[in-house]
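Dear colleagues,

I hope this message finds you well. In preparation for our joint manuscript, I am sending the Molecular chaperone (Aeromonas cavernicola) sequence together with its predicted structure, so that both groups work from identical material. I would be grateful if you could confirm receipt.
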Amino acid sequence: MKKLHSLTTLTLLTVFSLNATAAIVLDRTRAVYPGGAKSISINIKNENQTLPYLAQSWIEDSEGKKISSPFVILPPVQRVDANQKSIVRIATVPAVDALPKDRESIYYFNLREIPPKSDKANIMQIAVQSKIKLFYRPQQIIPERNAVWQDQVTITKQGLALQIHNPTPYFITYVGLAHPKGKEKTSIKGFSAVMVAPKSDMRAAIPEAVGNNFIISYVNDYGGYIDLTYQCSGNNCQVRKGE
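The corresponding structure tokens are as follows:
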């Protein structure tokens, strides 16, 4: 009986073709919608070389609920031919005027690929879904190009935690922590990414204590990872001048 069970399991595993590689891909890892803009565009591409795919898009709020206001997607569903590019537009409706004017608001842009129906038997098809942060940035707080506000954040050491104070009107996401080592750095493994809301404080757990100098990495508007070196006086830490 054991041999029969093993043979059956092996047969079931081999009759399915499983491919979880995304065909429809985005051109970014986050999007910023500047207040006053009529719309913004997100570029997508079907990287499958032979098959057309449908691309379904929608917006979710901070709680993961699908919404149709204050943002709309144009078009919500479209066909993208093999190895071709297309555009998804995000536009606002009048309800956007009710959003806070003194800080960013966060939403999530979702993109799901829908593969063509296979004419082969015993094929398991996987619909891959991408999800990125969508920040609405009111006109009143749109910074100058290449401005850096992340260096205004102060951090207090609390043993195996960092108390992060974000006085800015922007969301800030931290993705890495490291010890400085000359001109290099030694990454601290096990640090979990955290996002600090505008004008708020957050306590972030860290896998090991940091010294009087440490490096923390944030994500900029373009999805790049940027290092900031903090220098501490006691437990109170600020960005090192000239960094």
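For the figure legend, we might mention the following. The two ends are 68 Å apart (CA to CA). The longest helix spans residues 2-14.

With kind regards,
E.M.
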